[in-house]
Amino acid sequence: MKTIEYLDAVRDRHGLTSDNKLAALLEIDRPVVSSYRTGRRTLTQSDAAKVAESLEIDPTVVVADIQLERSKRPEEAAVWERAVEILKQATGPRA
Question: What are the residue ranges in the chain where pLDDT is below 70?
Fold first, then answer.
């Protein structure tokens, strides 16, 4: 999943109706959430951990997904894509 998909998943899981509420839940500044939404930024590792906690999934999966999203070269993306697959298998179906 990508940053925006993770943010949407947190909103859905917690029944949040705005990014203001999402920012409050994740303890992230609202402008940072906005920069994630617009694609100017991807989740930081610490924010990825907050997202993982709120979704009750292993944070390594979220961090690997974000590294995949950041990858600029196909060979880097292939490594992170494989890492995400392995982590999801290792951590179970909720990841």
Answer: 93-95
